[in-house]
Predict the structure.
Amino acid sequence: MNFAGRLQFRRLMCLMVRQNFASECENAINKQIHLELKSSYDYMAMAYHFDRSDVALPGLYGFFKSASSEEREHAAQLMTYMNKRGGTICLEEIPAPQFKFTTVKAALIEALDMEKTVNESLLALHALANEHSDPHLSDFLETNFLIEQVDAQKQLADYITQIERCEKELGVHIFDNDIKGKDMH
């Protein structure tokens, strides 16, 4: 079977499994996949910034590297879900990170802003699922994403508060050691 034939066969199989899955939800999931992959890419850039020899904060490196992995896993969960529902995954180009932070506090604020953006997008997707009477998608989002987003935002806000208390170099070193080995919720 040639490529066009395989593509036609795949579309037919997707139609067989597709039920109560609005194209608007499919499009929104694709946007969410892109946002999760972009967040993963951004967190990876942050991680390796803190791994540089002139920065040397291994706790923050590990924290942001873990956050990157988590966001990539979220994208994978969404892609698996999309295939289960008979949708088509449409990956897009991911722009290079554009960070301008010069302090740990600024990096944490940037991360919190990213998490809020992801959360807003998930809430909009959840509302869209409800609008289209799609309890499967609503449950999937509630079970796998929404609570975790609140936990991540709380954790980052706590870290920002803690770093504000210790903005001197020794304080940053102590903070970095404190978060070593902790993953993003």
The first helix runs from residue 3 to 17. The helical segments are 3-17, 23-50, 58-85, 104-131, 135-165, 169-179. Residues 20-179 form a domain with the Ferritin fold (CATH 1.20.1260.10).
